[in-house]
Recover the amino acids of this structure.
């Protein structure tokens, strides 16, 4: 591990400040090449899994010190969303592949368990190619819930047998529904958090699929919500158009879904009427952050899209 | 930060202080890049320990960089530049904006053909509403065309002596958006005849810059001075996207937000 040097610059605000370690990963790009690094998850042993759309190794596995432990997968050209779920003591991965128009469930070693196909009978899709899933979350009852973030912005709920049970969201409510997470912070009332990235909003749905709330995050093109402890973390891909503006940062909301820190971004400032001033990049740490993973110590691992094929960075909490 | 260090930073934007990360350029807040009497400009950089320095270059403005403490009022066509500093990071690249004073406000104007349905703006009025378009090309302040030569017929207030016409467009090669390739300006004389007053054709260097440098694009055409009540401007689009573009062979989009008469 190439640790951040003492005195390295600190970014973030309030109780969420971080030292930047952009040399966290010691991997050899010749051995483990990456293109766009999309999402990361961590298993119960502390191994970190990451999706990249480089079909020479679609899943790259790291330890927490940034050493690459291995890789697998050559058949996922649109490997994007990555979700880990413990099912009766075994952890599984769900890979949302927008090029294959599928979500693929695998074991941690890459063995395919099953796939979840385009919702042909849902009445809202005319062809398979309209379905471009970007993210998966697992419902309390084990259903597989998929965000069609690059397609038609519907949320599709499948049974574990692959049968479509429900469709909600859609273009009426969501614009670039890039990520979804089950929010269990209120144990009595779990909800879906869905990013509506292109209009800088976090949308909240109940488990029946009805909209119950919306959080305005002007300037923040949020990728997927990551609930960790009482907070929700996001990679903010950009803070201004165009989409390749290299203006991203990380954003953290507190238990009330109110921004409290934006590492690499401007201080969250609220106007007199309670609305948030537009957020923007202040330090060019990241180009296009695409996902965050938070470990038990509160460190944040950040993957990046379209950023020169860099391995993830680590923000070390101070 | 001590005074000496601050002075060095002011003199040398881009100076490394101690760490390897650079600040982003400060945000510029302005209602429009076009104005008649004056325009107020502010900068944003919400980061503890940071400062902004700015410089105004234009008519009656030739001072050096000054510490920014609050919104400033600009009364003449000017280039405004600013950068941010912080003791723990490299100072930012320069943020900049060109603010253009509009001379004549039009009485009316018509456009042929109509803008594309995806980017209708407010039709011909978009070109003389003094509202500048932003980074979001769908903000309603832009109109766009794909492949068509655009003709704008302007009716002026009275019969002013026109010296210059300024066309404001956008370049974003990755998004298929490129400025015009040629512009022709005619004015109507006392007999109702159209007279050629200015013509511009992009040079090879200008064509290359359009593809290389994204952002607002402006072209100022000096006219042979004459009094007139009407101006006809013919704007020829870039044309087909070049070979190296992923959309090669398709027509580039032409975006326009304003035409100014000075």
């Amino acid at each position: 591990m190439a640790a951040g040097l003492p005195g390295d610059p600190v970014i973030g605000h309030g109780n969420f400040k971080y030292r930047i370690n952009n040399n966290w990963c010691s991997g050899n790009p010749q051995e483990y090449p990456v293109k766009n690094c999309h999402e990361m998850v961590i298993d119960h042993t502390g191994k970190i899994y990451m999706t990249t759309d480089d079909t020479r190794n679609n899943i790259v596995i790291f330890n927490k010190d940034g050493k690459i432990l291995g890789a697998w997968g050559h058949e996922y050209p649109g490997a994007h969303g990555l979700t880990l779920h413990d099912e009766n003591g075994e952890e599984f991965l769900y890979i949302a592949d927008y090029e294959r128009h599928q979500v693929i469930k695998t074991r941690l070693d890459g063995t395919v368990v099953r796939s979840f196909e385009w919702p042909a009978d849902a009445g809202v899709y005319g062809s398979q190619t309209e379905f471009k899933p970007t993210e998966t979350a697992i419902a309390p009852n084990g259903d597989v819930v998929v965000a069609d973030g690059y397609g038609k912005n519907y949320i599709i709920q499948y049974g574990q047998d692959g049968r479509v049970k429900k469709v909600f969201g859609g273009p009426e409510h969501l614009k670039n529904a890039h990520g979804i997470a089950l929010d269990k912070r209120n144990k009595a009332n779990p909800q879906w958090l869905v990013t509506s990235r292109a209009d800088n909003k976090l949308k909240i749905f109940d488990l029946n699929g009805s909209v119950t709330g919306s959080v305005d995050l002007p300037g923040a093109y949020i990728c997927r919500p990551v609930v960790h402890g009482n907070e929700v973390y996001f990679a903010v891909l950009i803070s201004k158009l165009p989409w390749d503006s290299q203006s991203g940062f990380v954003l953290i909301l507190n238990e009330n879904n109110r921004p409290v820190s934006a590492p690499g971004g401007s201080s969250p400032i609220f106007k007199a009427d309670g609305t948030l001033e537009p957020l923007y990049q202040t330090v060019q740490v990241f180009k296009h952050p695409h996902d965050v993973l938070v470990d038990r110590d509160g460190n944040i691992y950040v993957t990046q899209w379209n950023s020169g094929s860099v391995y993830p960075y680590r923000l070390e909490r101070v | 930060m001590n005074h000496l260090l601050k002075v060095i930073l002011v003199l040398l934007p881009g100076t490394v202080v101690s760490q390897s990360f650079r600040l982003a350029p400060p945000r510029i807040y302005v209602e429009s890049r076009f104005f008649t009497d004056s325009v107020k400009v502010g900068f944003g950089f919400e980061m503890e320990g940071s400062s902004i320095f700015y410089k105004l270059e234009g008519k009656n403005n030739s001072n050096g960089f000054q510490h920014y403490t609050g919104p400033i009022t600009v009364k003449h066509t000017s280039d405004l530049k600013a950068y941010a500093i912080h003791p723990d990071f490299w100072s930012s690249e320069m943020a900049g904006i060109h603010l253009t004073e509009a001379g004549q406000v039009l009485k009316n104007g018509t456009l042929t053909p109509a803008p594309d349905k995806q980017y209708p703006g407010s039709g011909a009025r978009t070109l003389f509403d003094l509202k500048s378009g932003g980074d979001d090309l769908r903000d309603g302040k832009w109109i766009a065309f794909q492949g068509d030569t655009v003709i704008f017929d302007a009716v002026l207030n009275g019969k002013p002596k026109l010296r210059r016409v300024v066309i404001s467009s956008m370049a974003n090669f990755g998004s298929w958006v490129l400025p015009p390739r040629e512009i022709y300006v005619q004015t109507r004389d006392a007999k109702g005849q159209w007279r050629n007053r200015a013509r511009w054709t992009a040079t090879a260097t200008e064509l290359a810059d359009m593809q290389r440098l994204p952002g607002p694009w402006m072209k100022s055409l000096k006219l042979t001075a004459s009094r007139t009540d009407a101006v006809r401007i013919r704007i020829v689009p870039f044309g087909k996207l070049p070979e190296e573009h992923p959309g090669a062979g398709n027509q580039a989009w032409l975006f326009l937000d304003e035409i100014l008469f000075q």
Q: What stands out?
A: The domain at 10-317 of chain A is CATH 2.120.10.30 (Neuraminidase).
